[in-house]
Amino acid sequence: MSNIAYFPVRPSAEDNRPGKRERTKVANRQAILDAARAVFGELGYEAATVRDIIRRTGLASGTFYNYYKSKEEVFDALADDGARRFRPILRAESDRAVDFESFLRGAIRAYFDFLAAEHESWRINRPAGEVFPHARATPEIVAVFDEVRAAFAKVLAHDHAPAVDLDYFTAACIAVAREIGDKMLERRPVDVDGAADFAVRMILGGLPALPRP
Amino acid sequence: MSNIAYFPVRPSAEDNRPGKRERTKVANRQAILDAARAVFGELGYEAATVRDIIRRTGLASGTFYNYYKSKEEVFDALADDGARRFRPILRAESDRAVDFESFLRGAIRAYFDFLAAEHESWRINRPAGEVFPHARATPEIVAVFDEVRAAFAKVLAHDHAPAVDLDYFTAACIAVAREIGDKMLERRPVDVDGAADFAVRMILGGLPALPRP
DNA sequence: TGAAATCATGACGGGGCGTCATCCGCGCCT
DNA sequence: AGGCGCGGATGACGCCCCGTCATGATTTCA
Are B205 and A201 a contacting pair at CB < 8 A? Predict the structure, then answer.
């Protein structure tokens, strides 16, 4: 049995979980992410300190740096995580959509629902005037933008709609969605339907008026 | 002549400039602002350090803190300065405008011109992915937003346009202007006319489609 | 079981932060 | 003119955060 790959003996015979090294690694990474989310939520990004995050995990300072290089990097990981969870939702809307209107309505609705759901875990006690997750251009967030543009292109072509400046148009749509989404979260009660309706109508009305390059 | 207010003798008899104390005060404040602009331009906001700014002024560290409490506060002062310079331009557009379209076109054109002009003094060598002046809600910037909303209200009423959700609408318009403005600056050559046309048409088209509360 | 790989640990040097006791020179009075 | 008082410039200081690295503990694997 010398040429057979070796696996360590585990308490249970069928236990083929990864080894302990691997498990503590993911546990640590997760602990850091959780601590960071809590700290950013309580102190805000600017005020938060790598040490604050480290203290909350109970790990040694050196350990933190085995996983992330800086506060910025943890934050990006958190933002990336959000974008990664949103991406399949957006993809589903793109696949289902047959025309621009249905796609736009579905995507914005999905985004606002997502925002409202995430709201609780982020807006806790956050200092005013701060810039947050959406603002950074992490790889995963860039991917979401690209996907939106691609979906726009696909769906507009399907509609036989005249060409527009896709970069400007995508940027403008995302800007509207972000801003209306933010304002929506500040109102009580939070009215996802109303906000989505507003954003969709504004974009839908604007589209046919756009200059044709 | 005992009850006559005393003024120190100046080299020239008609020299009624403020005293040296006052002059060095404004000079220091200005020096800090200039140094900060340069440092933020070179290093970006995140990487910049209060010490970097101090070093560039040649002042002592304690002196800096006689004028501003933190890096954030200098930055806000810079942002406020921009907003303060833009405000009269916006005001002029508002006064001149007779309907929504003319106001919107004038205001966006003015904003984009302003952006392009400021571009040089800000974008120098700035690290990618950073959030900048527009993002912070300084008093003067908030005032600009309020002014935009007020102008919208005035001009829409003048048009006998049906009521809209002014907060959402203002926010959406500013978001579009910001985003298109940003994208405009990234293109070569910078095409203010094209960008302004795009933004204006998009908003103008969207307006009549909006839900009426 | 023992050697090697892996990784958590926390002390450390470096440096930025904001303060404060000190001192200087301008403004003001006689 | 001469001197005094005070606004404000100064920079050393103590504090804390930063990122690193030599060390040691634990896991992996033959």
Answer: no
Encode chain B (213 residues) as per-residue pLDDT tens digits.
Answer: 333 344 444 444 445 567 889 999 999 999 999 999 999 989 989 899 999 999 999 999 999 999 999 999 999 999 999 999 999 999 999 999 889 999 999 999 999 999 999 887 665 555 554 545 446 789 999 999 999 999 999 999 998 888 999 999 999 999 999 999 999 999 999 999 999 999 999 999 988 877 877
For residue A69, give the 3-state DSSP assignment: coil
Q: Does A15 touch chain B (CB under 8 A)?
A: no
CB distance B86 to B114 below 8 Å: yes
How far is the C-alpha of B186 from the C-alpha of A111, rounded, in Å?
27
Task: Extract the tokens encoding A137.
Answer: 């251009």
- Residue B55 distance to chain A (closest CA, Å): 23
| Token pair 């909303």: residue | B149
How many whole angstroms separate alpha carbon B4 and alpha carbon A53? 64
